[in-house]
Amino acid sequence: MMRKVVLRSIASCSKLLQPTSAPATRQLSYGLSPSLLRVRSPSATLFAQRNLFIQVQETPNPLSLKFLPGEKILDVPGRTYDFTSATGAKQSPLAIQLFRVQGVTGVFFGEDFIAITKGSEEDDWAVMKPNIFATIMDYIQSGKPVISDEQTLESQPSDTTILPEDDDVVAMIKELLESRIKPMVQEDGGDVLYMGYDDGVVKLKLQGACTGCPSSSVTLKSGIKNMMQFYVPEIKDVIEVKTEADELVERELEKFEIRTKQRKTPE
User: Fold this and answer.
1) pLDDT value at 16 more than 80
2) Which of 46, 174, 214, 260 is an S-S bond match for 160, by CB 3.0 to 4.6 Å?
3) Using a CB cutoff of 8 Å and minimum separation of 24, what contacts does 30-39 make?
4) CA separation for the pair 153, 267 (Å, rounded)
5) What is the pLDDT of residue 42?
6) Bridge partners of residue 104, in order along the sequence
7) What pLDDT was estimated at residue 178?
8) Is the pLDDT of residue 210 over 70?
9) Where in the numbering of this chain does the Scaffold protein Nfu/NifU N-terminal domain appear (predicted)?
10) Region(s) of the chain under CATH 3.30.1370.70
11) What is the CATH number of domain 36-152?
C-alpha cells in the first residue's frame, strides 16, 4: 500500500523562511509576499476603458515580470506552458506574437497569468510593456484560444501523472510536486517539472520566471530538497536539469548582478 503524505506548505522561489513550528509537528510554514505593481501608463488607462486591466507583478527573477489580465489564460487548473523561442511556440499564436516584441526571450503561461522574460538588463521594460499590454489585450479580446488544440494536449499525461510502472517513491515524489510544490512555484511566475528519479536523486527542471532565477538553487536545496527528504527519506539529492537556453539566462543574470553590485559600491 502506498504511503500517504500530509503536506502543509512548501518554500517558494521568492523567499525562504525558517520553519515557524517545532519539528515534532511536521508542519512547515514559509512566506511569500511579492509586491503587486499597478500600471500607471497611458496604456493602462486604455485597458481600463476596454474593461481589461492588466496588473504587473514582480518575480524573484529581475529579468521576468508576471502579467495578470484578470481572466483565465488556460482552461485546465495547474497546467502550464513554457516557450523559450518563437520557433518552439507554434502551438500558441499568442506566444508567437509576444516574441515579436523587441527584447522578449521567454513566454510562460499559467492558469491566470503570463510571465515574460527579457533577454538582458539593456532591454527596457518601460519600452517593452506597452507593446506587451497591447498584444495581450487584443488577443484576449479576440476570443481565440491561447493554446491551439489544447484539449488534445490536455489528454496527454502530465509530468506528475502517476503511471502503473511508478514505484512507491516515484509516486510520492509526483504527489508532492503536484499537490504543494508546483502551486507555490507557479505563484512566482514559473513551474517545476519532474524529469526523473535514479538512485536516490530527483531530477527537476525549472521553467518560466524561475529559470536562472538567483534564488533557484536555494529553492531546490533549502526548499524542495529538504521538504522531499522530510517525507521521503530515500531521497539523497535534488538536482536541476538545464538546457542551453537556461544557461544563457543564467549568464545574463550573473551580468545583471555584477552591474548591480558595482552601482552600489561607493567610489
Assistant:
1) no
2) 174
3) 30/184, 30/223, 32/184, 32/187, 32/188, 34/58, 34/59, 34/187, 34/188, 39/129, 39/133
4) 55
5) 35
6) 118
7) 93
8) yes
9) 54-143
10) 36-152
11) 3.30.1370.70
d(CA 162, CA 170): 8
User: What gap in Å lies between CA 226 and CA 56, rounded to an integer?
Assistant: 31
DSSP state of 262: H
Write the DSSP string, 112-162.
S-EEEEES-TTS-HHHHHHHHHHHHHHHHHHT--SSTTHHHHHTS--TTPP
**Which residue bears the cell 503536506?**
7
* Model pLDDT, residue 6: 41
Judge contact between 209 and 117, C-beta under 8 A: yes
C-alpha–C-alpha distance, residues 14 and 37, integer Å: 16
CATH 3.30.300.130 segments of the chain: 156-250
pLDDT over threshold 90, residue 217: no
> With left for phi above 0 and alpha for psi between -120 and 50, is residue 220 left, alpha or beta?
alpha
Residue 68: beta bridge partners? 55
The CATH T-level fold of domain 156-250 is: GMP Synthetase; Chain A, domain 3 (3.30.300)
The cell numbers describing 256, all together, are 545583471
In this structure, the number of other CB atoms found within 10 A of the CB of residue 35 comes to 6
Q: Is the dihedral of CA 163, 176, 189, 251 positive or negative?
A: negative
Q: pLDDT tens digits, residue range 221-234?
A: 778 999 999 999 99
Burial class for 66, CB neighbours closer than 10 Å (0-12, 13-18, 19+): buried
